[in-house]
Specification:
The protein is an alpha+beta fold. It folds into three domains: 2-155, Alkaline Phosphatase, subunit A; 160-197, no CATH class; 201-318, Arylsulfatase, C-terminal domain. It has nine helices and six strands, in the order H-H-H-E-H-E-H-H-E-E-E-E-H-H-H. A four-stranded antiparallel β-sheet has the order 3-4-5-6, covered by helices on one side. Helix 1 runs parallel beside helix 3 (72-102) and helix 7 packs across helix 8. It is globular and about 60 Å long.
Length: 319
């Protein structure tokens, strides 16, 4: 198995001589379709342990065609395979931690465990990561450094992947390059009074010309709806463009993200606030790119940022 091989090589290195500091990245393909794991792990999670999530009519209209024919048994089988693959990967991570402990390197080594995306397991009829529902965008982020970071603390603050690098540099007392995006999470890790992270977090997926911004309670999703997807997740009518849309969800009262509040007058101010925060983020991170044209509304500015330059030129040529 690839995961076993990667950890074997990493462990071999850890058990060698180290005369200078080092950084090691160990990446795993598990858990990722097709959810590989050794034959001996088969059956650790059985389909009967799981339940296929309900799929609404709205979800069916937006469901990628590739998933439309899956039966309940198929769904539960995918869930079981995913968790088996995940369990196998966790065991390999455990082997890495044991190697650090055995070599006496744990007290001198900051371990950062992170994923690069979440994964849908039947929610909204989907089995991938190419959307902005919570299961697709939430990721694990665990930091371990015995004697330096307090163990068994869970921090509920909103953070982003761009925060990981500045945090590592600060924790390790290394120089921080000027202009580095992201914030230092060390005060949160240390439990310092008043330590804060982000009040909103942001993500975008340009293949679908779509972006999201969320606070602790609300999430806003904006999509141009003008791009034919090329990532293999077209709906059953791939030539039908959905047109521009917005979605607003209350993640406290509606954690399953089933009720769109974007047209609810009672939530208009929340929507406008999050639109403003999205514009600020997209404009501020376009360093080196063509400036956003003046005079555009918030929504038009977001749409302008979401369209790749070559696609914008093509659409202009087509009128």
């Amino acid at each position: 198995m690839q995961g076993t091989f990667f950890v074997d090589r990493a462990t071999q290195y850890l058990k060698g001589k180290h005369d200078r500091p080092f950084a090691m990245i160990v990446s795993f393909y598990e858990p990722h379709s097709p959810f590989n794991f050794p034959r001996g792990w088969r059956g650790r999670f059985r389909p009967g342990l799981f339940t296929a999530p309900l799929v609404s009519e709205h979800d069916r209209r937006e469901q990628p065609e590739i998933f439309a024919s899956l039966s309940d048994l198929d769904v539960r089988g995918i869930q079981a395979a995913y968790y088996t693959s995940l369990s196998f990967m966790d065991a390999q991570v455990g082997r890495l931690i044991e190697a650090l402990d055995e070599t006496g390197l744990s007290s001198r080594t900051l371990v950062v465990y992170a994923g690069d995306n979440g994964y849908m397991l039947g929610q909204h009829g989907r089995f991938e990561k190419h959307c902005f529902y919570e299961p697709a965008v939430r990721i694990p982020l665990i930091m371990r450094w015995p004697g330096h970071l307090e163990s068994h603390r869970r921090i509920a603050s909103l953070v982003e992947m761009v925060d990981v690098l500045p945090t590592i540099l600060h924790v390790m007392k290394l120089p921080v390059p000027p202009g580095l995006q992201g914030i230092n999470l060390e005060p949160l890790l240390a439990g310092k009074p008043g330590a804060e992270a982000h009040d909103v977090v942001f993500s975008e997926y340009l293949e679908n010309e779509e972006a999201m911004v969320r606070s602790a309670r609300y999430k806003l999703i904006v999509c141009t709806g003008r791009r034919l997807r090329q990532d293999g997740y077209q709906t059953a009518e791939p030539r039908r463009l959905p047109g521009p849309y917005m979605r607003l969800y209350d993640l406290v009262l509606d954690p399953g993200e089933t009720r769109d509040l974007s047209n609810d007058p009672a939530h208009a101010s929340i929507k406008e606030h999050l639109l403003g925060r999205m514009v600020e983020r997209m404009v501020a991170t376009r360093e080196g790119l063509k400036p956003v044209p003046p005079g555009l509304s918030r929504l038009d500015s977001i749409h302008w940022c979401l369209v790749p330059p070559e696609e914008r030129t093509r659409r202009k040529d087509e009128g």
